[in-house]
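re: that chain from earlier
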Amino acid sequence: MPTSLRIIQRANRTLGGIAPRTVARLNRRLFSTPRRFAPREWELALAVLGTRERLPNGASMLTAGAGPRTVALIHGWEGRATQFALFAPSLLAAGFRIVAIDGPAHGHSRGTRSDPYSFAETLHEAAERHGPFHGMVGHSMGGGAIGIALAAGLPASRAVLIASPASLHDVLHRFASAMHMPKAATQHFVAALRQQVASRGHPEVDVLELVATVPTRALVIHARDDKEVPFNDGERIASAWPHATLLPVDGLGHRRILRAPQVVDAAVRFLLDG
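^ sequence. v structure.
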């Protein structure tokens, strides 16, 4: 465990009962500020293959292909568009055009703060330029953003959610627990973030409630050994989504799943089906 994390946890435990609002505010900033990581070598093929564009909100995208149907790709927290490098050849060979998005404050996009709702807003902006989308593929938080965007009216025939959380409320509480925030600080932390979402015009309901109203067909892919987002989250999404199918996989964890040929093949076959 990094020393800096232990220091923050200790400070949260010590100050959380004395100044819960202050601790909540500081942790809200920490929660909303992603770290940027350089792409791995295996990701660089997509960076070379695609053409960079920038959206009005400062988000960066890689576009490739000229097929009649477009598929949007959106990564998870602290990820980047190039993590879909192994999806690109199969999607292009299947005749799709791809739009791979760096979420706000991620990858080549501008900004320092982000959240699933800003990811969803970016999907809407990308669709205005390159839509309509035939399909969308999201990893982790990107999958949650797809659910939010679809529930807000973004049309798509197919959605693939890979290792995605079923509840943003649960994500907040997992973070608070990992950061050793006491109960009072956690309550302020969650309430402030919910208010932040509502102030931007989003409904104060969670992902499962949102996807229950979505007519889009979905494929939910989740590894049973995922230690970051529990497998049960995938089960809950597939159960709540009216037209969703769950594809369990083994031994792929939370991040290796994006490099698995069987996951790529399943996603492309699903996108081609209709």
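The first strand starts at residue 51 and ends at 54.
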